[in-house]
Amino acid sequence: MTDDREHYEAVVVGAGPGGAAAAATLANNDVETLVLERGTEAGSKNVSGGLIYAEESAPYTVDDLFPGFREAASERPVTENYIHALADDKVRTLDLGDIHHHDTEWADAVLRRRMDSWLAERVHEMTRETGGGLLTDVRVNGLLREDGHIVGVTCDELDPIGADMVVAADGVNSELARDAGMMDWEEPEEWFQGVKAVVQMTPEEVDERFDIDDDEGEAHLFSGDLFEGVRGGGFLYTNRDSLSIGTVFHLDSIAAQQAEPHELLDNLLTHPLLARWIDADYHEREYSAKLVPDSKKVAHPSPHKDRLVLVGDAAGQMQAQGPIIKGMNHAVTAGALAAEAFVEAKSRGKPGKAGSIYEKKLKNSGTMSKLRPTSYRATAPVSENGVVAGVTDALARSPLGSVGLTVADKLGLVEWGFNSPLVLKTLPDIRTAYATVPEVLAKATGEVITETSEVQPPDLAERIGDLTYDTDVGNPHIEVQDNSWEASGTAVTACPVSALDFGGGCYREETVKANGGEERVVSLDTQPCVECGTCAVVADTHWEHPHGGKGVEYREG
Amino acid sequence: MRSVVLTKGVPDFREGAVSFDEDGHLERGKTPTVMNPNDEFALKAALQTKVRHGGNVSVMSMGPPGYKEVLQEAMESVYADDLYLLSDREMAAADTWATGMTLATGIEKMEERPDVVFAGFKTADGETGHTGPQTDWCLDWPIVTHVISLDIDEEEGILRAKRLVEGEFDEIETVEAPLPCFVVTDPEFEPTYRKAAHRLTWKDLREETQDRAENFEDHLTVWNQEELNLDPDYIGLDGSPTIVSSVDPIPKAPSERDATMVTPDDEEGMAEVFEEIAPFTTGAAEAEGD
Ligand SMILES: Cc1cc2nc3c(=O)[nH]c(=O)nc-3n(C[C@H](O)[C@H](O)[C@H](O)COP(=O)(O)OP(=O)(O)OC[C@H]3O[C@@H](n4cnc5c(N)ncnc54)[C@H](O)[C@@H]3O)c2cc1C
Ligand code: SF4
């Protein structure tokens, strides 16, 4: 070790909910903690739906660690939750109240810039007391190794830093998890892609249109034929003075169907049902996108190596409980448990044991079984099998399926199913669950929607134009390794800021003359990139995050 | 480590702020005063010194009472501990020599001798680049000019700097000087903060300074001629040997070329444009000139 190398007891990479929870817990235990965040302010890189849940069964919730969180950093408490099954001009609305309140102490809508920057201020104050602190505009670009062992981090903006524990809370597309060989970005099946619009609305309009008080909020989820068979759904959450409206789809489905994510979002925004809440005055404050890991498939069973622990999205700890998405709460729990583990290990004089203690804590607290339910693991191989999936889908679509669903719905079984934690845990990731059942259900038992939409969402060029970027000119953070259409063409459609026949996005289709014929290739311009991570998975790229403070800056998130 | 930054107010020459009369003379009264742009680099160097080595930074200026705001701005940007304004009617209309004399006296009057004095390179109004070196001449300290990066070895009492020497080929010289030392920063000066600890200190200083900058007058010392005990013959207009022989207004650029306006919708016109520029686009054809 060189003499002048900086060293902190703990280095936390990323100031999202996972990093904030880890850092606060470490600081509460007097561990000298340095937090490094690449955004120009915490939250400026982050996107979520977002409903943050405080689960009764969780060992830590965000307001345990950050008193005053709900008053200062969240938007509205959300007490009502509905899912709307849509087909043609019909909707069947089911109350998700039971599952929403199941194991729930409270659930609040949040916008990430506001939430994360508030958390970061607290974290800086707390960690500064320990001799550390929180720095923004610093991108950690890899792990520092000595004799093959992880002993710290390397950064674009700072000299290498040693640590007794490195907490990778760097979110989805964690460069640290990849560097440690613990996560690859190969399989689209393992990810969702989330796309969101924050829509301007005065607090009074929110109250009036949803018929709620100013300290109440609602969640609405959407599924059915509006997404053209792409597996996934839509959401709408009420904020103080805006709405968060977005979609979350399985990335493999987006890729396979060459779906254009912004168009799917527009299908939702312009759906007649949404005319209940949004009208011709539609003003989009921000368009955003990010990948979301599917914990059922990628939650790392043993998220540690040497002195490194992975928490939150970096460890794949993002639970899709049927249509309900729980990532932030688990990131908080995992962050705090990792910190606890380090404190225990240190007190035993064996700080190196933190990782394995953390793994035990994830298991013993029941967190791991939420993330990787055994019931899903037992049924998935059969239910997701192509033949079985085909039969199930056909069955649901058949008159028999429709009658069955009608009867089941009358008996309240459908609503029960959507509200059953067990059913939701087992839910196979096939079309039937996401599109077919809601579609058949709406057709069979839905009511006719009478509203018409007057919403005109901005086009992609306007959406990109409205975003704030600090471009690192001449320093693209993504490089296409293989620009053939076969290897990387999917990115042209799957990238949320690119589209076929759109020249202003990141990925573009081009034809070049080669070997006497013409070849279809892709070209890339990272300027409009929103760093969602999609092309790291669906295209052949060398993918990194931009340098600290560079790239897109979300104001809402 | 104690440092002093010398700064100066200058007319705001930016488009929209600056005001000229009909003859093209600057209207001082109508043009706001701002901090001399090049002083930013001196401030950055002083801040880097404070962040890395701790201690105290003072900002000093000679000028009318209106410079207080400039000092406040400097305090905010360098997280200065205190401010000094050397201000007296007798000092007005000083040239760089008389200014240097006055500033050096101010520095010598400070309770504790500073280790480094920083000055920017050239002011936006005078453009001479003399004030720094002339102040230093009065102090009789070693001076390093055109500094683009800086490191101080406190134990050895040595300052190491890289300086940019412009010429046919730009050269970068590495020099060492004993403290106390006078440093003139180059506009290419870039502070570096590659240690987390330095950036954390920087954040602390920023927070600490907010209060101080709001009540900056509590941290401001104003010295007049008497307090500085300056010989009237050496300051102000009387102490200024510089004679400005004449000032030439900047001639307007000759506009001899004819411009033809073509709107993009005008197909014929655009075709002509393309024809005109075609020879330049191939790279092969030499521009034929006009
Ligand atoms: C559209 C959408 C909707 C969602 N809806 C919900 C929802 O309703 N409820 C819910 O609970 N979850 C939701 N999620 C998931 C949720 O956002 C994530 O699970 C959660 O943010 C994970 O938290 P984290 O702390 O692990 O990572 P993040 O919140 O992603 O934080 C990671 C931090 O690390 C920083 N960082 C990354 N790399 C580096 C680096 N190399 N160096 C320094 N800093 C770095 C980032 O800038 C960021 O601040 C949604 C996600 C999306 C995209
Ligand atoms: S270029 Fe890649 S990372 Fe950037 S927005 Fe498009 S898909 Fe996402």
Short descriptors:
heterodimer, A: 557 residues, FAD/NAD(P)-binding domain, D-Amino Acid Oxidase, Chain A, domain 2, Alpha-Beta Plaits, 23 helices, 35% helix, B: 290 residues, alpha/beta, Rossmann fold, 2 domains, nine-stranded mixed sheet, 11 strands, 30% helix, disordered C terminus, binds flavin-adenine dinucleotide, binds iron/sulfur cluster
How would you portray this structure in words?
The complex is a heterodimer of chains A (557) and B (290). Chain A has 557 residues and is of the alpha+beta class. Chain A has 3 domains: 216 residues, FAD/NAD(P)-binding domain, CATH 3.50.50.60; 223 residues, 2-Layer Sandwich (D-Amino Acid Oxidase, Chain A, domain 2); 85 residues, Alpha-Beta Plaits (2-Layer Sandwich). Chain A contains 23 helices and 26 strands. In chain A, strands 3, 4, 5, 6, 11, 12, 13, 14, 15 and 20 form a 10-stranded mixed sheet that branches. In chain A, a hairpin with a 2-residue loop joins strand 8 and strand 9. In chain A, helix 15 packs parallel to helix 19. The longest helix of chain A has 20 residues. Chain A is globular and about 75 Å long. Chain A starts with 5 loop residues before the first strand and ends with a strand. The model of chain A has no long low-confidence stretch (mean pLDDT 94). Chain B is 30% helix and 22% strand. Chain B is globular and about 75 Å long. In chain B, helix 2 packs antiparallel against helix 5 and helix 3 packs across helix 4. Chain B has 290 residues and is of the alpha/beta class. Chain B has 7 helices and 11 strands. Chain B folds into 2 domains: 233 residues, Rossmann fold; 33 residues, no CATH class. The C terminus of chain B is likely disordered. Chain B has a 9-stranded mixed sheet, with helices on both faces. Chain B has a two-stranded antiparallel ribbon with strand order 2-3. In chain B, strand 8 and strand 9 form a beta hairpin. Iron/sulfur cluster binds next to helix 23 of chain A.
